[in-house]
Each structure stands twice: as C-alpha cells, then as structure tokens.
Amino acid sequence: MLLTSKIRTSPSKAASPAFWDAALGWLVRPLHHRAVHALRNAIEQSDPERLASFLDPCVSVVVDSGNAEHPTIRVVNGVRDAVALLLYGMASGPGRAIVERSVNGQAGLVLERDERAEAAVAVDYTGRLVSMVWIRLQPRMQRHWNAV
What we know:
The chain has one domain (about 20-135): Nuclear Transport Factor 2, Chain: A (Roll), CATH 3.10.450. It contains 4 helices and 6 strands, in the order H-H-H-E-E-H-E-E-E-E. The protein is globular and about 50 Å long. The protein is of the alpha+beta class. Helices cover about 35% and strands about 35% of the residues. Strand 3 and strand 4 (about 105-115) form a beta hairpin. The chain has a 6-stranded mixed beta sheet with strand order 2-1-6-5-4-3.
C-alpha cells in the first residue's frame, strides 16, 4: 500500500479558498513591486514610449482631489492621455520626489515635495500591464507609510 493512499484529506480539512487567495497574493507581491518600480523609473526618466509599454490599451487614470468639502474626481482613459497625465502630473522639480511606498497594502508610489506627501498612487494590473492608476491628492493617512 502506498503512503499516499493512507493519507486522505477530507473535504472539510482541504485548504480554503481564502488560503489560496492569500498564497497567490504572497507569490504575486514581488511581481507587483517590480512592476511599480519599473513604472516609477519610466516616469522619472520622462520616457513616454517606455511608460506606454507598461500600460494596457484600455488603461484608466483616476485622480481624486482629496478635498472632503468639494470632492472632485477626474478620469482619463487610454494610453495616450494616461502617459501625458502621468508624465506631466508626476514631473520632477525642486524638492519633489517619487518614492515607493505601501499604498492600500500593496506596492505603490507617493509623490513628495520637501519630504511631505502630495499624492498617493495605487496601481492595478491586468496580466502584466497596468490597467488602472489611482491618484489621491492630499492624502491624509501619511504617518503609517513604510518603504516597500
């Protein structure tokens, strides 16, 4: 008799879907970090062709003003408009930096001016391409961000 035939797993003891979701998240996390890092480099180098190569053809960029009194959300769709917005909105300047931080529990970007957060950027993927970029201006939850 084989050892495997003696070890039987009952359906109640089988790994739950939550376990597999957590395991997949743990395996994919380094890939997400590398993709965010590559996206940051393309933006910092102001390379529109390289940046476009990371974007899904149907990419959306959502910009939330972060203003509780007068909330404003703008959405830009398509690679051409997304590249223009990301390169212009995240352009380097005096005292300005793009740093990699944890945003919503995943690798993301934070725009800083003089070491103070101006915007938090979360990135979603479909396959290997960026499908959605969420930009929150004037983020309130700054004190808990850690380096990725």
